[in-house]
């Protein structure tokens, strides 16, 4: 029986990898962000489609798989960042990850509270999760929509930083729900603990990888392969080491390690970038298809018109307010600000963390809250589904209409 199960699991993994590759191929052919095809593929093979993937098949390993995958994706994104472009776009970036994030957090929480009648705890939890746009959804869009480098960098850095801070903030808020006696300074301390641990571990891992690549002599025949494997190992080890101490600190560690190594002079940099990019495509396909396959339409339909109104408010009111409020006087044209307002899809971090919290809300006491769990999961997945399908699907056309698309980047 165990052999049969193993074979089923191997066949399922093979199918997901094959479908993910096909989705990437179609995205390249039709010049559409790959995440759109990945989500549609996941829904097609999930319980709402062919039923090839169910929560029972995936099991408890999903959160671990997603965590490691996100670490690889974020490491690759931060390693690839052009640091000169960051300095050029620093004012826009700093405002988007501070002013813009606060507007998104508070605005989303208030909207969910007013339109869906959620408790303040659940409303702020949803608000924290939906701050994150994330490299998993931004990168595929920018891959097929060439815009000015400063605009692209602002979107990329916003996605990476907000992925990290949103995950940490959500964990802090969830822990606060289980400890009602927590003083206000306790929130800050929980947040700082995770950020500090992630930064320290990320720096240490980056330092070790740098030392091994630059100070230890290696055979020339195997050096490029060793460099690629060291980079991949650094991403996974940074995540695992920090996450074993504080939940979600691993994401901070992976981002820190990637950014630090990306800013240093390393041998075989081009080979590392190519390899990490290929690995990222693979894990991105696997995670998006798997998470999309776990969508339950009943959770989404239960929100009704109010749920769609929440999504519309996030897309056409809160996101533009955050972008326009953050990009005053930073050298962006009105068309570029409109494009950035349009490109705000949510992705892996909100989906994976919301799934984890929903399970805990349904099974743990305190803070057992089954109705809150359904509201949390339904709202987050509805926002992800609509924003990805609409914004990823029409990003290229919108960029052309606004006149912000360039012939090449």
UniProtKB/TrEMBL annotation:
<keyword id="KW-0472">Membrane</keyword>
<dbReference type="Pfam" id="PF00999">
    <property type="entry name" value="Na_H_Exchanger"/>
</dbReference>
<dbReference type="GO" id="GO:1902600">
    <property type="term" value="P:proton transmembrane transport"/>
</dbReference>
<keyword id="KW-0050">Antiport</keyword>
<dbReference type="InterPro" id="IPR006153">
    <property type="entry name" value="Cation/H_exchanger_TM"/>
</dbReference>
<feature type="transmembrane region" description="Helical">
    <location>
        <begin position="50"/>
        <end position="75"/>
    </location>
</feature>
<feature type="transmembrane region" description="Helical">
    <location>
        <begin position="226"/>
        <end position="243"/>
    </location>
</feature>
<dbReference type="GO" id="GO:0005886">
    <property type="term" value="C:plasma membrane"/>
</dbReference>
<feature type="domain" description="Cation/H+ exchanger transmembrane">
    <location>
        <begin position="14"/>
        <end position="391"/>
    </location>
</feature>
<feature type="transmembrane region" description="Helical">
    <location>
        <begin position="195"/>
        <end position="214"/>
    </location>
</feature>
<feature type="transmembrane region" description="Helical">
    <location>
        <begin position="159"/>
        <end position="183"/>
    </location>
</feature>
<feature type="transmembrane region" description="Helical">
    <location>
        <begin position="7"/>
        <end position="30"/>
    </location>
</feature>
<keyword id="KW-1003">Cell membrane</keyword>
<dbReference type="InterPro" id="IPR038770">
    <property type="entry name" value="Na+/solute_symporter_sf"/>
</dbReference>
<keyword id="KW-0406">Ion transport</keyword>
<feature type="transmembrane region" description="Helical">
    <location>
        <begin position="122"/>
        <end position="147"/>
    </location>
</feature>
<protein>
    <submittedName>
        <fullName>NhaP-type Na+(K+)/H+ antiporter</fullName>
    </submittedName>
</protein>
<feature type="transmembrane region" description="Helical">
    <location>
        <begin position="371"/>
        <end position="390"/>
    </location>
</feature>
<feature type="transmembrane region" description="Helical">
    <location>
        <begin position="338"/>
        <end position="359"/>
    </location>
</feature>
<dbReference type="GO" id="GO:0015297">
    <property type="term" value="F:antiporter activity"/>
</dbReference>
<keyword id="KW-0812">Transmembrane</keyword>
<feature type="transmembrane region" description="Helical">
    <location>
        <begin position="96"/>
        <end position="116"/>
    </location>
</feature>
<keyword id="KW-0813">Transport</keyword>
<feature type="transmembrane region" description="Helical">
    <location>
        <begin position="300"/>
        <end position="318"/>
    </location>
</feature>
<feature type="transmembrane region" description="Helical">
    <location>
        <begin position="275"/>
        <end position="294"/>
    </location>
</feature>
<keyword id="KW-1133">Transmembrane helix</keyword>
